[in-house]
Amino acid sequence: MLEGIHVEVLLAASYTVFLAGVAFLLEWLARHSHKRAEHYRNSGFVYHHKLDMWDCPAGRQLTRIEVDYKHNIVRYRAPANACNACSLKINCTDSDEGRLLESRMDSWLESELRKFHRGISLVLLFLATMILLVEMARHASPRELLLTVILLLPIGIAETKLFTSFFNLRRRT
Fold this sequence. Notes:
Order of helices and strands: HEEEEHHEHH
Number of domains: 2
Radius of gyration: 25 Å
Structural class: alpha+beta
Strand content: 5-15%
């Protein structure tokens, strides 16, 4: 025992903090990685929200040609004659029909990749919750209960938010 708290409870508490930290780090890394991938995919192109069009690095406009609601993708294309005459074509596209740019309608919060990472985070938080609940049942001194409850509250709140968003998104798809 260490100041009224059993060593097992301290180890379990430390492990749950570690699991929660890994879950939050995974969420952050997944979101960061998604944003970077989106940025590199359209690198050099500038989107004009009000006009719903893209400008290419050579200054040509890519206009909307198609919306694929099944896959939540909007496709934009530059005029073929502009691309075929462009000096940047060799580094931009090999298509003779003009550069095609795809933009996802769904955000990171709605993507399939997000659901996968969110599921892993939920499993980690659920495991942390179970460890704390077992420790509460095994060691019931006031200090040990206080420690486990203090850890359970933020983990439970985070778990509830992630759980709700995960299943709300599954119903939409």
